[in-house]
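Lab meeting, item 3. Inverse folding demo.
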């Protein structure tokens, strides 16, 4: 049975005061059962790690360079993130695919770099509204996943995948349970073609306007192994309620 994972993506939000208030609150009230992570801006990794101390809350980053350490101004390597205590790193978020023209091939290289450094990449995929309306959701997601799945079974088995429909991100319009379940089942089937172990072990998160009210029904679906949470991760009460929805009863 896969342990559910709830990962908060702070995006470009927060200040040191937010780390100092929100992280200890999370640490003191984490439910037993699900794994919980916060993916914070690079500059707050150190503060966040200190606030976590030895608690079960996991640390994550929001991006990583596909390159090894070297002359790459402004980039952050997987080795650096690992040294800061990161367990997770988000790669291929649609905001980066769109704003920074990240190709699926480059996203796969970032995932490989994270894995080489001993971290778990959270690989994001998802279709735009136009792609969904024109019936291309499955094709788009298959194409986004292809270079990642081509990394081979031994690496794929160590991934987390997040299905995040672009039209649901930050809009308040979550995918319905049925819409999410259909895509998650497709992703699980694609993993099965890589290896039986990948299909069994890889966690597939749903992200896109997850709220305390919508999380329980989403997390009740077999193929939905938790969530990647944006806006609601900035509010301790909302985020903890979502974490509680991931407790398997
Ligand atoms: O990475 C998180 C997603 O982009 C979801 O963001 P949201 O929960 O604010 O819609």
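The presenter then showed the designed sequence:
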């Amino acid at each position: 049975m896969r342990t559910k994972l709830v990962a908060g993506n702070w995006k470009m939000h927060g200040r040191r005061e937010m780390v100092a208030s929100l992280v200890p609150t999370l640490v003191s009230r984490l439910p037993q059962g699900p794994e919980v992570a916060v993916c914070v801006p690079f500059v707050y990794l150190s503060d966040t790690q200190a606030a976590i101390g030895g608690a079960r809350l996991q640390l994550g980053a929001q991006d990583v360079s596909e390159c090894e350490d070297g002359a790459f101004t402004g980039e952050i390597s997987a080795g650096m993130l690992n040294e800061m205590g990161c367990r997770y790193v988000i790669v291929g978020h649609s905001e980066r695919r769109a704003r920074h023209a990240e190709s699926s091939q480059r996203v796969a290289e970032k995932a490989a770099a994270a894995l080489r450094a001993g971290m778990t990449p959270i690989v994001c995929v998802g279709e735009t509204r136009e792609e969904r309306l024109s019936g291309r959701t499955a094709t788009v997601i298959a194409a986004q996943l292809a270079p990642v799945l081509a990394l081979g079974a031994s690496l794929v088995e160590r991934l987390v995948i997040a299905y995040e429909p672009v039209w649901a991100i930050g809009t308040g319009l979550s995918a319905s349970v049925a819409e999410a379940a259909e895509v998650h089942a497709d992703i699980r089937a694609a993993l099965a073609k890589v290896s039986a172990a990948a299909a069994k072990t890889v966690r597939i998160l749903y992200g896109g306007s997850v709220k305390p009210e919508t999380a329980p029904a989403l997390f009740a679906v077999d193929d939905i192994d938790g969530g990647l949470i944006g806006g609601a991760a900035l509010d301790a009460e909302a985020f903890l309620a979502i974490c509680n929805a991931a407790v398997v009863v």
